[in-house]
Amino acid sequence: MSGFRAVVTDLDNTLYPWVDYIVPSLEAMVASLESTTGLPRIRIVQSLKAVYTKYESNEYPFAIQESDIFQPYERDFDSFNRLVVDPARRAFKAARERYLRPYPGVLEGLAGIRQRGLRILALTDAPRNAAELRLKWLGMDRLFDAVYTLPGYALPENVDPAIRKRQALGHYRSATRVCELPREAEKPSPDGLRRVLADFDLSPGEVIYVGDNVLKDMPIAEAVGATGVWAEYGTYVSNEYRERLAVISAKAVTRRHVAEESPARWPLAISNFAQVLDVLDGLRWTRPARRKAARGRRR
Length: 299
Ligand SMILES: [Mg+2]
Fold this sequence. Notes:
Elements lengths: L5 E4 L8 H20 L3 H15 L7 H4 L10 H23 L6 H10 L3 E9 H10 L8 E5 L10 H8 L9 E3 L10 H9 L7 E5 L6 H7 L2 E5 L7 H10 L2 H7 L11 E2 L5 H5 L19
Parallel strand pairs: 1-2, 1-5, 2-3, 3-4, 5-6, 6-7
Bound molecules: magnesium ion (MG).
The site of magnesium ion has 7 residues, from loops.
């Protein structure tokens, strides 16, 4: 039919709105730390940001015990864990469970791709642990043939023994095969997508690549010769959330997850992930080079 054999998709802001969940979750965690330690919010935020920058992820789960501000409490890890870390972790989790959701059309779209007999692969710039856990939390970790991530991080020395045990038992592992790419494969390097194609013996013409970032995702589709589909809906982030995110998230980390506002566009755009099915079915297949000038950006 269409000749497509696989859909490779980005994760953050393509399958779920990352900002919509990370902002309230981090804020809930910071509020918990303020109330359990009495420290000023600004000190807490700055100290956490430094750790998140080091690990290049706002989802690094051991940021509290590794941040400099809390070091005096670490002398007695058990009390610190019970009185400070645990409540903060629970606050984050409660907000995450409330706010982390796939975009409308994502589950339907993924199911439709499967029904058509295509492979589904994920390619993300998130570290392994964060990507893997998030898919598990979303209940989506069985939906992929494989997930390609950037390298993960090891457990820190000082950690709740229960967490160490759960880690050893594979509790944090996703049901899908996860493949860690080298750091240098971060998009817009096309190395990750090339690796996916090689691993699954796919030629570029057989692959659709979906992503929200015009400047990081679409260039990799172009570089390997796959059909790039721009998840334009993933770029709509309210200024209110952008402002709140800038307070709690380091710029370098934010940039990895959220496309910066840019006038750049990509001709084959979708407003809902399920429209990937229209592309597969040839209903809206238009070669980018032949498209008319793009219409104004809708906000
Ligand atoms: Mg993205």
